[in-house]
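Bit of a strange request maybe. I'm writing a small parser for structure token strings and I need a real example to test against, not something I typed by hand. Could someone generate the tokens for this chain?
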Amino acid sequence: MTIQITGSSGFVGQNLQKYLSDRHDEVKGLSLRNMNWRNHMDEDVIVNLVGKAHDHNETATEQDYYNVNVELVKEIFQAFLGSSATLLIHISSLAAVEEFKATEPLTESNDCRPVSLYGKSKREAEEWLMKQELPEHKKLIILRPPMIHGPGDKGNLGLLYKLISKGIPYPLASFDNQRSFISIDNFCYFIEQIIQRRDNLASGIYHVADNEWISTKQIIGIIKEVTNKKVPDLSLPKFLVKGIAKVGDFVPIPLNTKRLKKMTSDLLVSNTKIKQALAIERLPLTAKEGLEKTIRSLSDE
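Reply from user aminoacidic:
Good idea to test on real output. This should exercise your parser:
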């Protein structure tokens, strides 16, 4: 089994390439900066991780997102059709269906309500891909993960870790929420199972996530355990926190309305469809174990 990973230089790509290399004869990373990349897509399986992620500095334009998350995906799909590969796994995002709030677990049949340029471009690519005709011997699997975390991740968990490790109280304890995440270990496991059991999957869209939901309060608790910091939580009134966040929409402070929503709202994902199709009962790590592993890696840096 030979596997090609496009977009292998990032956090997810590096971890996935290492994981699959331990289990398959030949796993290659492919940079699309190589002008001849279309001539190097003749492996058995292609995993497409290429994408323009959220721009927290808000300097990227709509066209920037469209060029990478839509137009480039179209080119990759066309190259897949012309190659000897029989399986294309395209990594989309939960942002294609919902970005801020879902109190009931999101399934693949939920209406899509992307808000950001990132989410809208991811959804547009999904819609285009789902309209394409596939030869009988080829299969397309589109995955929507929530936030992926793990060793080497430089995302929001790192910000929370810095806060607590410096002894600064967590100021949002008045909010109670549940969110879905996926550890890089579980993400890589899903990819491997899809490759191994592809005959059990029909082409289409699937959600991947940890089995358990976890709250921001629980994450703070795990950080305290790992760092051995006895930092008190601070339950500021919600109206005050929301007011500060609104100020952050105009002034460069660590908290703004968008970040507050992501940190305090419910965003739940169901992974039932793909687990049933692949006959998966347990994942390598629980949500808590995955977060502990990520946070320990931050303490080692």
